[in-house]
């Protein structure tokens, strides 16, 4: 047996906080070594934080990372452990996103990322250069390029994030060249349901390439991107370990690398493929001999036996229900996003919410309170200030609901009427129109803007983080007000569809029993900016609206194709009505792009986020002739 203990770490980094990020990694490295870890794996861009975006264009931003990497090597010199950490380097005019191998007080090598994503939320090819097969250069006296590393326990192949997502990635040539343990450093953002995709991908790659894969992922939130952590250890296709998500720390497990080689020898297809690769001129990746750099201590390691002490029977099923998994993941991700933005910006002292008594602001409050329970467990409500700002159209029911949930959560609650100001602003607008009456929609917008203005005044005066509460569905069709409810410092649920908002609230009602949630859900959803407003009556049923948005924004269907899909999805709705809904959605969506491009920074939880910077990059000015059938 050749037993190796692998530690997978997730560090909550802040972009540009090089010293603090390195300090966190050093603390975990010390704990790993104390617990007999042979090789410790840290995430992509550990020192700089991720995503640094155009900050990497600053030479000083890149150069300053190297002293921290040297410090990490120096302070881990006495430890009998190998570490692989993410770092950026500036090399001959290029910026390279690298995995650095560190042991015995030395930086042994740098392996640059080869596959640079430019889809979804990623723009890496804009700033970073690519590593290349066969690359063999030197950076500050350290080998830089396509290398393997031979230690006293086996041969290691470092790689960075996207390299594992390509079937034509470096793993193939590196395992054919003798790599037994592939170490992948990632900063893979949270996306709904994506953890299963990661798990399956890593299992597939480990089986295809007959190797052990140790995958470490970043945790925490920087700007609108949320990283959920969750590392994986897989040996030749068999799941070994998964680390906890949404928390900083590390987890370790033991594998027998002799098993990896034995299974490789038994895999005839892998052997034949390797022979073909060699016959076609495949060039072996060079191996750096590091066997004398560090002497790992593995004598105390024991064979990895199943916790339930059976190699034939399944382990106890600890999986969550689909409902629990979906809801808890969204709530964990969004509360992490709120908390990290609040803490890392270091600009705010309290969280502020305009609590309307409706569904969206209620969910935003519950997410903020979820973070506050972690940050101030002794008194979470002290971190939040809620304001109810009624006008003549506000109902007693929504006020009661808002008061009830604030009381249940222990959140400070103030009632500040906007009715007098509304009357005054309406009169001013009428004067500016030469005595003509303002339109009904203007009357609604005046109320929304007054509330936003007061929230900004409060924020400016007390250092409050003004949380914007609008959802993605209404944002997509412009059912929102520029300068009003579209405004805020951080948009918490701007990428959560309305149907998901309601699903989450049903879940939270079941799991918490809060009376305030029940009271909010008892009333039809509506903004209360006019008499008896109901959102679905003014727009369309929310399930149909969300289906239209998905089919248009994600599947990229034409209106005719959307109608065809909706007819199959909602057979109980007359086709003529569905056709009207589709026409209305497309018209409102196209007309509302100018609105949502002005919205605040939003938290990302999916591939269909409504964000021009990181998701749907659509022109504001565009025609619709292309949608018409010929």
Write up this protein.
With 630 residues, the chain is an alpha/beta fold. It has two domains: 3-289, Carbon-nitrogen hydrolase (Nitrilase/N-carbamoyl-D-aminoacid amidohydrolase); 322-627, Rossmann fold, CATH 3.40.50. The strands form five sheets. The chain has a seven-stranded mixed beta sheet with strand order 15-14-11-10-9-8-17. A six-stranded mixed beta sheet has the order 5-4-3-2-1-16. It has a five-stranded parallel beta sheet with strand order 20-19-18-21-22, sandwiched between helices. Strand 8 (148-151) and strand 9 (154-160) form a beta hairpin. The longest helix has 24 residues, at 322-345. It is elongated, with a radius of gyration of 27 Å. The relative contact order is 0.08.
What is the fold's blueprint, element by element?
Blueprint lengths: L2 E8 L7 H17 L4 E3 L17 H5 L1 H11 L6 E10 L2 E10 L2 E7 L11 H4 L8 E4 L2 E4 L2 E4 L2 E7 L10 H6 L4 E6 L7 H15 L3 E6 L1 E4 L2 E4 L3 E4 L2 E5 L6 E8 H10 L1 H12 L7 E3 L32 H24 L4 E5 L4 H17 L8 E5 L7 H14 L2 E4 L3 H14 L7 H23 L1 E5 L3 H5 L13 E2 L6 H15 L2 H7 L13 H4 L3 H13 L4 H11 L5 H22 L34
Parallel strand pairs: 1-2, 2-3, 8-17, 9-10, 10-11, 18-19, 18-21, 19-20, 21-22
Antiparallel strand pairs: 1-16, 3-4, 4-5, 6-7, 8-9, 11-14, 12-13, 14-15
Helix pairs in contact: 1-3, 9-10, 10-15, 11-16, 12-13, 15-16, 18-19, 18-20, 19-20
């Amino acid at each position: 047996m050749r037993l190796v203990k692998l530690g997978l770490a997730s560090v909550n980094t802040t972009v540009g906080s090089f010293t603090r990020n390195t300090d966190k990694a050093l603390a975990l490295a010390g704990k790993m070594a104390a617990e007999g870890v042979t090789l410790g794996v840290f995430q992509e861009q550990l020192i700089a934080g991720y995503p640094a975006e155009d900050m990497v264009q600053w030479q000083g931003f890149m150069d300053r990372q190297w002293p921290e990497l040297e410090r990490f090597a120096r302070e881990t010199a006495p430890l009998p452990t190998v570490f692989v950490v993410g770092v950026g380097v500036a090399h001959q005019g290029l910026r390279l996103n690298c995995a650095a191998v560190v042991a015995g007080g030395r930086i042994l090598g740098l392996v640059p990322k080869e596959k640079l994503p430019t889809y979804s939320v990623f723009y890496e090819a804009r700033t970073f250069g690519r590593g290349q097969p066969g690359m063999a250069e030197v950076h500050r006296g350290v080998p830089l390029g396509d290398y393997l590393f031979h230690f006293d326990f086996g041969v290691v192949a470092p790689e960075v994030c996207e390299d594992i997502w390509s079937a034509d990635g470096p793993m193939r040539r590196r395992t054919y060249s003798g790599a037994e343990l592939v170490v992948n450093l990632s900063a893979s953002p949270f996306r709904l349901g994506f953890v299963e995709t990661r798990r399956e991908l890593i299992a597939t790659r480990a089986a295809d390439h007959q190797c052990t894969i140790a995958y470490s992922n970043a945790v925490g939130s920087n700007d609108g991107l949320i990283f959920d952590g969750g590392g994986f250890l897989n040996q030749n296709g068999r799941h070994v370990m998964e680390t906890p998500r949404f928390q900083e720390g590390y987890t370790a497990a033991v594998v027998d690398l002799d098993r990896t080689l034995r299974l490789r020898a038994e895999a005839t297809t892998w052997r034949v493929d390797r022979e073909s690769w060699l016959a076609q001129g495949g060039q072996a990746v060079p191996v750096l001999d590091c066997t004398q750099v560090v002497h790992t201590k593995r004598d105390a390691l024991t064979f990895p036996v199943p916790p339930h002490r059976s190699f034939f029977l399944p382990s106890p099923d600890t999986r969550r229900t689909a409902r629990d998994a979906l809801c808890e993941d969204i709530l964990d991700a969004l509360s992490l996003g709120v908390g990290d933005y609040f803490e890392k910006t270091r600009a705010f002292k309290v969280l502020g919410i305009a609590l309307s008594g409706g569904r969206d602001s209620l969910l935003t409050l519950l997410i903020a309170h979820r973070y506050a329970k972690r940050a101030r467990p002794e008194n979470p409500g002290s971190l939040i200030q809620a304001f109810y700002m009624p006008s003549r159209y506000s109902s007693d029911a929504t006020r009661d609901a808002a008061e009830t949930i604030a009381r249940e959560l222990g959140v400070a609650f103030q009632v500040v009427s906007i009715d007098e100001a509304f009357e005054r602003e309406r009169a001013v607008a009428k004067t500016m129109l030469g005595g003509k009456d303002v339109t009904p929609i203007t009357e609604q917008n005046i109320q929304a803007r007054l509330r936003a203005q007061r929230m900004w005044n409060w924020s400016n005066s007390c250092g409050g983080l003004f949380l914007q509460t609008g959802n993605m569905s209404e944002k997509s069709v412009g059912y929102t007000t520029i300068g009003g409810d579209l405004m805020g410092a951080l948009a918490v649920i701007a990428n959560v569809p309305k149907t998901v908002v309601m699903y989450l609230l049903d879940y939270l009602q079941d799991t918490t029993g809060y009376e305030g949630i029940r009271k909010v859900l008892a009333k039809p959803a509506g903004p209360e900016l006019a008499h008896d407003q109901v959102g679905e009556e003014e727009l369309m049923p929310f399930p149909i609206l969300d289906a239209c948005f998905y089919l248009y924004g994600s599947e990229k269907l034409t209106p005719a194709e959307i109608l065809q899909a909706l007819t199959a999805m909602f057979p109980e709705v007359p086709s003529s009505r569905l056709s009207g809904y589709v026409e209305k959605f497309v018209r409102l969506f196209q007309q509302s792009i100018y609105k949502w491009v002005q919205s605040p920074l939003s938290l990302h939880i999916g591939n269909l986020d409504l964000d021009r910077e990181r998701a749907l990059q659509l022109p504001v000015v565009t025609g619709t002739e292309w949608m018409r059938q010929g």
